[in-house]
Automatic annotation (TrEMBL):
Pfam families: Glyoxalase_6. This is VOC family protein. SUPFAM superfamilies: Glyoxalase/Bleomycin resistance protein/Dihydroxybiphenyl dioxygenase. InterPro entries: Glyas_Bleomycin-R_OHBP_Dase, Glyoxalase_6, VOC_core. PROSITE patterns: VOC. It comes from Methylocystis borbori. Residues 1-125 form the VOC domain.
Length: 127
């Protein structure tokens, strides 16, 4: 079994600049012009271009928006070099909303959002 998460982005090239170029995820497939698959450790992340203001599902009254929003699903990046990864993400447009240094049996963790308003966490190793 493989695991994959797909993320809506307003423009595919903007999503690739963040997830592929800044975070270092490798592009492994582009089955259509508006969807790309990225390798993320043992998992995959799909980026799909969906314009702001479009409906997320037929019959929905909601619309896609790309300012910061809450979602019950987010990605956790477990990384070896916490500070370097976090700095690259922030310099590429992510926002670090809260950061805990860790210590003892707790790893460092940062609660963040990508440039498109999607939440994610960065977790480093236990010191």
């Amino acid at each position: 079994m493989k695991y994959s998460v797909s993320i809506d982005v307003p423009l595919l090239e903007d999503g690739l600049r963040f997830y592929r170029d800044a975070l270092g995820l490798a592009e492994i497939a582009r089955p259509v012009a508006t969807y790309v698959t990225l390798k993320c450790g043992d998992s995959q992340i799909g980026l799909i271009e969906k314009s702001a203001g479009s409906k997320p599902a037929e019959g929905s009254d909601d619309i896609r928006r790309y300012e910061r929003h809450w979602t019950p699903v987010h990605i956790d990046f477990h990384v070896d070099d916490f500070e370097t990864f976090l700095a690259k993400a922030v310099s590429a447009g992510a926002k670090c909303e809260r950061k805990f240094e860790g210590g003892g049996a707790r790893p460092p963790i940062a609660f963040c959002s990508d440039p498109f308003g999607n939440g994610f966490c960065v977790t480093g190793p236990i010191a």
